[in-house]
Write a structure and sequence with these properties.
The complex is a heterodimer.
Chain A (H helix, E strand, L loop, with lengths): L3 E4 L2 E4 L5 E7 L5 E7 L5 E8 L2 E5 L6 E7 L2 E6 L8 E8 L7 E2 L3 E5 L1
Parallel strand pairs in A: 2-11
Antiparallel strand pairs in A: 1-3, 3-8, 4-5, 4-9, 5-6, 7-8, 9-10, 9-11
Chain B lengths: L3 E2 L5 E4 L4 E7 L7 E6 L6 E6 L3 E5 L2 E6 L4 E6 L8 E9 L2 E4 L3 E6 L1
Parallel strand pairs in B: 2-11
Antiparallel strand pairs in B: 1-3, 3-8, 4-5, 4-9, 6-7, 7-8, 9-10, 9-11
Classes of the chains: A mainly beta, B mainly beta.
């Protein structure tokens, strides 16, 4: 039973398109995150939600919009995709803000 | 200035040796420190957490923390080829977890 699941695992799309990534966790955690890992493997936080409330919103273009319908789900919608958006996007969850994160398998986005 | 710094490696150690991975951080008020392991093409997984100065041991892994020097390290004893991965240091501060760029470890036969 997958603890943190993301869909889709792979996305290949053209510049200018819009895409969404979905994330669900069944660990009973109350905090969820989106991280971006670029080609140099640097893992950078984008957003964090605690009990559906946005608590971290790093300097991310407005084209990225997270949505948390409940504390078990955190989705990411990206408008007007650009080449620089190509990366692996990881969803993660934790109990509170403990720093002990459980990661999903990642969603590899390729923008052509 | 990077908030969490690690040597990118690769760090190459022979099988059975001790691998020593180091990390420095800039935020003096950081309270919690973590080591994550990431295999190629996989997601990061938590292997160690440490919250107070000193050593914490878990099996072949020992985490060491020195807050005065703003330094945290991970020792892997009896290194195995299966330990070959990238090791990410992570530090909490300003209510978020910040990762270093990782050190790639290669354990050779």
């Amino acid at each position: 039973d997958t603890a943190v699941s993301q869909t889709p695992k792979y996305l290949v799309t053209q510049m200018g398109n819009d895409k969404s990534i979905k994330c669900e966790q069944n660990l009973g955690h109350d905090t969820m995150y989106w991280y971006k890992q670029d080609s140099k493997k640097f893992l950078k936080i984008m957003f964090s939600y605690n009990n559906k409330e946005l608590i971290i919103n790093e300097t991310v273009p407005n084209r990225f919009s997270p949505k948390s319908p409940d504390k078990a789900h955190l989705n990411l919608h990206i408008n007007s995709l650009e080449l620089g958006d190509s990366a692996v996007y990881f969803c993660a969850s934790s109990r509170g803000r403990s720093g002990e994160l459980f990661f999903g398998e990642g969603s590899r986005l390729t923008v052509l | 200035q990077k908030e969490v710094e690690q040597n990118s490696g690769p760090l190459s150690v022979p099988e059975g040796a001790i691998a020593s991975l180091n990390c420095t951080y800039s935020d003096r008020v950081s309270q919690s420190f973590f080591w994550y392991r990431q295999y190629s093409g996989k997601s990061p997984e938590l292997i160690m957490s440490i919250y107070s100065n000193g050593d914490k041991e878990d099996g072949r892994f020992t985490a060491q923390l020195n807050k005065a020097s703003q330094y945290v390290s991970l020792l892997i004893r009896d290194s195995q080829p299966s330990d070959s991965a990238t090791y990410l240091c992570a530090v909490t501060g300003e209510s978020k977890l910040t990762f270093g760029t990782g050190t790639r470890l290669q354990v050779t036969l």
